[in-house]
Amino acid sequence: MFDFDLNISLNEASPLYLAYIGDAVYELYIRTIIAKDANIPVSKLHKAATSYVKAKAQSDTVHKLMEYLTEEEIRVFKRGRNAKSYTSAKNANIVDYRHATGFEALIGYLYLKKDFERLNEILNKCQFINIHNKGEF
Asked: What's the longest Cα–Cα distance across the chain?
């Protein structure tokens, strides 16, 4: 991963900041996995990626992931879920949107914490969940 040094306390960082970073990390992960077959048209890659990163899909994934999370990770998820956001997803209900924000905050937290081993464990678990939800990945 990238080598960076942030002078912020992740426990004090805005959960929406964590979600912003987590959104990018998860999107990159999904795109990398989906693009393993380089012969697929980009429009189909985009459609496939969108089906995994939309709020409803993230909400479904995080619900199935909860039993694998530590207490610390659940706290980060809840901070993200409960954050006051002044935007909403175009095609999602507020509950799914908030759960997706919590999920993204968790991913961003682990990334910025540089806990890449745990981040990979969670992303691999997400991949397993998505395969069982959709039958593909």
From this structure: 44
